[in-house]
Every structure is written in C-alpha cells, then in structure tokens.
C-alpha cells in the first residue's frame, strides 16, 4: 500500500512541479513532442476546472436559446435576399434540431418574428431587438473565449459589429455550399462511372465530409473569435479534436434517442426541450474545451518554472527586472528592432510568464512603452525615456514608487520619523551607484 501511495505521490510531483522545470531546450526532438502533449493535456484539464467551463457552457446555452429565433430569422432574411431560402430550410433537415421534430415550430416562430419586424409602427423596435439579440449572443461567445485566452480587452464596438455581421452573412453561403456539395455527391456523382470505379474511396469521402466541415468551422472559430493572435497550427489542433468530438457526440446523441424514450413518459410532448438543452450544453462544453486546448497548446511554455515564478524572492525579481530593462535599452542603443516578450524570453532562456510580469511592471512604472502591431497582434517594447537619463536611481525609484504609499491618515510621529530615516539610509547606501546609467552596466 505504501508503495502505491509513493507511486501516486511521484506522479503528482512530476505533473505539478518536475515537468515544468524541464524546458524544450533540454529535450531531444522525440521527447519534446511527448512532453508538449502531456503539458497541453495538463493545462487543458486545469483550465477546464479553473475556468469553470460547466458554468460558462450553461451561460452560453441560455444565450443561444434567447438568440436562436432572431438568429434563424436573420439567416432566413439574408437567404431570401440571395434567393436560397428553400435550400437553407432543406439543409437544416439533416440537423439535430430536425431529428427532434423542432424545425416546423422554429420556422413558424421565425416567420412570425419576421412578420412582426416588418409590420407598422414596431419595425424599428423589432429590428433593434433582433440585432441586439444576435449581437449579444456573439459578444457572450467572444467574452468566453477571451476569458480562456486571458485577454482583458474585447474588440471595439465597430470591429464587433463588422465581424459579427460578416459572420451572419457567411453562414447562409456556407450552409448552401455544404448542402449543394452533398446534393451533387448524392445525385450527379453517384450516377457517374467514376463513382462505381472508386466507390469505396468515395463512400469513405462522403462519410468524411461532415468531419471536414466541422474541422474547418472549428478551426476558423478558434482563430477568429479570441481578440488575440492564435497560430494556425494550434487552432487546427483544437479544431480537429473538438470538431471530431462534436460530430461523434451528435451521431451518438441522435442514435441514442431510443434509449432516452423515458423522457417521453415524463415530459410528453415537451420531451424535446430538456433533450435540446442537454444537447446544447454539451455542445457548448465541447466548443469551450477546444478553446482551452488551443490556448494550452500555444501557451504551455508560459508555465515553465511556474511554482518558482510564484515564489520568487524579491532580490532575484529585482535582478531580473534590471536585466530585462538593460536588455531592452541595449537593443535600442544598438539600433536593433524592438522585441516582443516571446523574443526576449527565448533569447535569454527566461520563463515567458515571468518576463511578461516584469515587462508589465516596467511599462506601468513608465520605464518602457508598448508598441502594438495590428497585423501580427504582437507587442514589442522600447524605452519610454531618454536612455542617457535612465540611471539606476531613476529605475529603482520608478519601480519602488509604483502603487500607493503614505495613505495612512492617522497621525503617527514614530512611523513618520522611521519612514524618513529609512529613506535617508537608502540614499546613503545607493549613492555610489546612483548615477550609473542602466545602459552602462
């Protein structure tokens, strides 16, 4: 029993501490790949728990239910403009909602909704509610993705409107293309000579089409929705996993309706509602878990030396702060292009998470400034003041005085005297190096 406990303790220690002490530079190419998978898996599971994806999936389910009729109404209205309304409705017949027998009811709601927005005095209010319902749903999705990616700033209202409206315009075209391709395969292609010669391959290809469409949609979603730069490979990895899981779950759920017949006994004609809610929530959970995987696969390096970074001593953090400030200043003095936090961490073999923390402190204290590139969505760093004026005293003063101080209003002469004495002692201790420039260290 003691050996088993010791074994699990070693596993826990490896997962919690040891694996994060091993950087990729220390590993061979074959072991590097396996360590990436393990780190990504650990971070995705941690993210699932820490980000409370169950609660977020429930919130998104509510948003979808609130927006489903306005969203369908907007898609149908756009489809009418392109003259493909019937094809949209026909393509929906193969979806899960159709299997639940909800398409007629949903389309009835959509028709009434469109008639209401077009009629009389309430046309403006109806359209405003329609657009707000759809926009609010997309904003909830973006906020959930930004939270997973630890992005604090959302898109501007103008960018949100253009992005979301473009998405709504693309959805009908995407449905028509996928539906048209399916019709082509099932009708024209099935009658051709090629189909009979290569039937096993074509049949396999036809079965693979839903997966390919899901992989494409999920990959695009993971790249576009977060308000940050997501690499294609990481989005594709998450798209493959989440898209496959979504398709398998949909097939399993539809085919498993026979085993859920007891809901018909309990709920009668309302049985479709709890089943729909369950399907929506699990689908949202799959989508959010894919976002966690894309984040974890792109950012697992940020968690190297995680425990040590959290418990770093004040002296060592001050040393690294001075080093990074010196590095950025020398880069500027040598007329080299400004570097991002990833470049700084990689060139100096430093934990990226700690580098980001220190750079944030240096920016907040006015020593460095961020230069944001809209194309690459990367931040690079430059000195915020003249490097010939940036002395050790100026650097330390700006960092040490960052934040609140002298905020105690109660009169305390002993405390005030001690404050003055410590400042005098510090000035005396620092005098020999006060005027030393950071660039000259």
Low-confidence stretches: none
Mean pLDDT: 76
Main sheet record: 3 strands, antiparallel
Terminal CA distance: 57 Å
- Helix/strand structural class: mainly alpha
Approximate strand percentage: under 5%
- Which percent bin holds the helix content? over 70%
Radius of gyration: 29 Å
Number of helices: 19
> In the residues, how many domains can be counted?
3
Q: What is the total tally of β strands?
A: 3
Can I get a quick summary?
The chain has 441 residues and is mainly alpha-helical.
Q: How would you describe what is shown here?
A:
It is a single chain. This protein has 441 residues and is mainly α. The protein folds into three domains: 2-48, no CATH class; 51-302, no CATH class; 306-404 and 413-440, Winged helix-like DNA-binding domain superfamily/Winged helix DNA-binding domain (Arc Repressor Mutant, subunit A, Orthogonal Bundle). Helices cover 71% and strands 3% of the residues. Strands 1-3-2 form a three-stranded antiparallel beta sheet. A hairpin with a 4-residue loop joins strand 2 (368-373) and strand 3 (378-383). The longest helix has 30 residues, at 53-82. It is globular.
């Amino acid at each position: 029993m003691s050996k088993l406990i010791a074994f699990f303790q070693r596993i826990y220690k490896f997962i919690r501490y040891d694996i994060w002490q091993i950087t990729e530079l220390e590993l061979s190419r074959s072991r590097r790949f396996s360590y990436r998978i393990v780190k990504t898996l650990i971070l995705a599971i941690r993210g699932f728990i820490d980000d409370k994806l169950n609660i977020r999936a429930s919130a998104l389910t509510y948003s979808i239910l609130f927006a489903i009729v306005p969203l369908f109404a907007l898609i149908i209205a756009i489809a009418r403009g392109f003259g493909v309304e019937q094809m949209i409705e026909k393509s929906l017949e193969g979806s899960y909602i159709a299997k639940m027998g909800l398409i007629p009811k949903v389309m009835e709601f959509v028709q009434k909704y469109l008639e209401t927005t077009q009629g009389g005095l309430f046309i403006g209010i109806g359209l405003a509610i329609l657009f707000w319902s759809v926009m609010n749903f997309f904003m909830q999705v973006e906020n959930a993705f930004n939270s997973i990616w630890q992005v604090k700033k959302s898109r501007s209202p103008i960018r949100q409107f253009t992005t979301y409206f473009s998405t709504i315009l693309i959805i009908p075209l995407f449905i028509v293309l996928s539906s048209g391709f399916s019709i082509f395969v099932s009708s024209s292609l099935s009658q051709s000579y090629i189909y009979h010669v290569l039937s096993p391959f074509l049949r396999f290809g036809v079965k693979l089409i839903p997966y390919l469409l899901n992989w494409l949609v999920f990959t695009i979603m993971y790249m576009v929705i977060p308000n940050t730069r997501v690499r294609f490979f990481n989005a594709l990895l998450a798209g493959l996993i989440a898209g496959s899981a979504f398709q398998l779950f949909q097939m399993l759920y539809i085919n498993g309706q026979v085993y859920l017949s007891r809901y018909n006994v309990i709920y009668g004609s309302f049985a479709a509602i709890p089943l729909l809610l369950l399907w929506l929530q699990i689908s949202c959970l799959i989508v959010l878990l894919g976002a966690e995987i894309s984040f974890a696969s792109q950012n697992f390096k940020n968690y190297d030396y995680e425990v040590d970074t959290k418990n770093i001593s004040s002296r060592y953090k001050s040393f690294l702060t001075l080093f990074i400030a010196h590095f950025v200043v020398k880069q500027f003095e040598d007329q080299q292009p400004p570097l991002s936090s990833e470049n700084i961490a990689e060139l100096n073999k430093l934990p990226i998470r700690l580098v980001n923390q220190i750079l944030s402190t240096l920016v907040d204290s006015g020593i460095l400034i961020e230069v944001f590139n809209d194309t690459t969505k990367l931040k690079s760093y430059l000195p915020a003041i003249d490097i010939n004026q940036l002395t050790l005293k100026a650097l330390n003063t700006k960092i040490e005085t960052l934040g609140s101080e002298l905020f105690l209003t109660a009169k305390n002469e002993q405390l005030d005297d001690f404050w003055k004495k410590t400042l005098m002692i510090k000035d005396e201790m620092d005098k020999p190096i006060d005027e030393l420039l950071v660039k000259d260290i």
